[in-house]
Amino acid sequence: MNTERTQARHKRAGVIPLLLAGALSCSGCEWFGLTPPTPPPPPADSLILRGDTLAPEKQPEPGSPEAKLAGGHELFRRGNYSQAADLFHSIADKPKKTQESVVIEATFYEAQCYRLLGRYTKAADIYLKLLKQWPYNPYNEVADQHLFEIANYWLDDTRTAMKEAREAKDGKRWFTTPRFFHMDKSKPFADEEGRAVGALEQVHFSDIKGSLGLGDKALFLCGSVKFFNEDYKEADHYFTQLHQHYPESPYAPQAVELGIIAKHMSTGGPDYDGRKVAEARLLIDSALRNYPELAQKKKDFLEKQLYSVAAQQAAKDYETGEFYRRTGHPGSAWFYYDLVRLRYPNVEPYCRLATERLLELKKKVEKEKGPGSVPPITPLGDRPAAQPAPVQPELAPPPRRAELQPEPAPPPPQPLPPSLNR
Questions:
Q1: What is the rounded CA–CA span in Å between residue 81 and residue 45?
Q2: Which of residues 148 and 374 earns the better pLDDT score?
Q3: pLDDT per residue as tens digits for the range 187-231
Q4: Is the pLDDT of residue 356 over 80?
Q5: What residues does 31 pair with on adjacent strands?
């Protein structure tokens, strides 16, 4: 009896769920007078803000560039930078079939992957591509910062070479270690300095207004490398840009000091163009006026440079006078010799040589045209002090001045028209 009752109870328990399921599955049916609840939306991987609500973001189609970009971000988040770089490269390598924003993002993250893998040469190339091809991309500042860090890291070998060269000059070292090639993946195989200078130039162009504080640093590093390699013309170019575009930079005083030397050394001597020497004189004047700390600490240095500039300019003017003397133009030669005596009276031996040449020309002219045809030449050391000119008596009465006529009285004011006199 108990077995039969248990089986009947089980049959009734199985029938009731079936009846409830059938009643709820009928369209338009009510469950105890209530409408069945609405099923929740399918789960989404991410949500975006639209208006005041969060809505599920539409998932990209499988195999599309957007889907590859999302997969690359997931690999990047997991730290699998090698596979993420390959995936990002497959997107950035086909810019014609992909939206520009997707290509820019893929290019930036490809460079990020190579940087985190320690392959700085590959990362720097991609950063340069990003900054040159899309100069106003949203990743500009981050790319500039990382590119500057990579270039600064590459210049560590140059700093070591500078230290060794200083020790060799002081007699503490017999030789310096050459560094032409590098097997390290973090450095270029060859021309490490050139690659670093190229990267720093791009950093300066991208941050030319100095908003990131990298433009002046990049110029100073480039100028220092060129100055160490005795490429004074290029060093002068970088230091001049730093002095002109970033006068308030903490590197500006030292850039002015090195720029003066670079301008002076890049001329090649008095036989070449003298414009760089004139620029060096102007730069010395600017250093004395605009940088008091440089004028105080480097006063002797600036005075020596000023004398050296004056000596080079005196040599150039003297050689010009020599050219006109040899070619048979005594008038022009006289002009330049006298110019050397007047402009550079304390620069030896050019002032003395110019005086001797003037005496020789004076003898030749007097021999041809007679004595007294050339004014006497007084040595600069024997010149008397300048005296004020005596007051000459008036030889004729001053001209009579015309008497001033009284100005005519202004006309009386006219009455306003009736329409305006209100």
A1: 22
A2: 148
A3: 889 889 999 999 999 999 988 887 788 999 999 999 999 999 999
A4: yes
A5: 34
Report CA-CA distances (Å) from 254 to 74, 210, 221, 262.
48, 18, 12, 12
Q: What pLDDT score does 232 carry?
A: 92
As a whole-number percent, the residues of the chain with pLDDT over 70 amount to 74
SS3 readout for the chain: CHHHHHHHHHHHHHHHHHHHHHHHHCCCCCECCECCCCCCCCCCCCEEEECCEEEECCCCCCCCHHHHHHHHHHHHHHCCHHHHHHHHHHHHCCHHHCCHHHHHHHHHHHHHHHHHCCCHHHHHHHHHHHHHHCCCCCCHHHHHHHHHHHHHHHCHHHHHHHHHHHHHHCCCCCCCCCCCECCCCCCCCECHHHHHHHHHHHHHHHCCCCCCCCHHHHHHHHHHHHHHCCCHHHHHHHHHHHHHHCCCCCCHHHHHHHHHHHHHHCCCCCCCCCHHHHHHHHHHHHHHHHCHHHHHHCHHHHHHHHHHHHHHHHHHHHHHHHHHHHCCCHHHHHHHHHHHHHHCCCCCCHHHHHHHHHHHHHHHHHHHHCCCCCCCCCCHHHCCCCCCCCCCCCCCCCCCCCCCCCCCCCCCCCCCCCCCCC
d(CA 364, CA 396): 44
pLDDT digits 0-9 by tens, 229-248: 999 999 999 999 998 899 88
Q: For the segment 116-145, what is each residue's pLDDT rounded down to a tens digit?
A: 999 999 999 999 999 999 988 899 999 999
d(CA 188, CA 153): 12
* Residues whose CB falls within 8 Å of the CB of residue 274, separated by 6 or more in sequence, listed in order: 267, 312, 313, 316
Least confident range from 6-10, 242-246, 271-275, 283-287: namely: 6-10
Phi-psi region of 210 (alpha: psi -120 to 50; beta: other; left: phi over 0): left
Query: What is d(CA 217, CA 237) in angstroms, rounded to the nearest whole number?
Result: 15
pLDDT > 50? residue 402:
no
Decide if pLDDT at 107 tops 90: yes
